[in-house]
Design brief:
It is a single chain. It contains two helices and seven strands, in the order βαββββαββ. By secondary structure, the protein is an alpha+beta fold. It has one domain: Multidrug-efflux Transporter 1 Regulator Bmrr, Chain A, CATH 3.20.80. The protein has a seven-stranded antiparallel sheet. The longest helix is centred in the first third of the chain and has 15 residues. It starts with a strand and ends with a strand.
């Protein structure tokens, strides 16, 4: 699976300040991305959920596609993932779900995690886990 979009470097302490503007930027350019499903990819973790990571908002794309300047394509590996379905008022339900994941003791890989945004009130989180 490949996702093309815009990326920033952040962490869970700064995300509340960084992400709203990043989402606004994505909304302005989302029609230029030839894909369907809106997705978020977390990658290049510094260490665990307390460190910095890359946050890419984009769309799933298929085939050979040219990446425009200012965007990036990430290929999501076929690693093992734990799936969590989140429904409710966003972003509050999503923030709550991530807090549960951080506190869960899940044996996370901290390689790549991703979200599939299925609608305005439904998100599927896929958390990379160690085998």
């Amino acid at each position: 699976m490949k996702v093309m979009g815009i990326e920033i470097r952040t962490n869970n302490s700064k995300a509340i300040f960084d992400l709203p503007g990043h989402w606004q930027k994505f909304k302005k350019i989302s029609d230029t991305i030839p894909g369907g499903q809106v997705m978020v990819v977390y990658s290049e973790y510094e260490n665990d959920h307390n460190g910095d990571y890359n946050y890419l908002i984009g769309k799933e794309v298929e085939g050979d596609i040219t990446c425009p300047e200012g965007m990036k394509i990430i290929e999501i590996e076929d690693d093992p993932y734990e799936k969590k379905e989140v429904k409710g008022m966003m972003p509050f339900a999503l923030i709550g779900a991530w807090k549960e994941i951080w506190a869960s003791g899940l044996n996370r890989a901290y390689h790549t995690d991703y979200e599939i945004h299925k609608g305005s009130d439904e998100v599927e989180i896929h958390v990379g886990v160690k085998e």
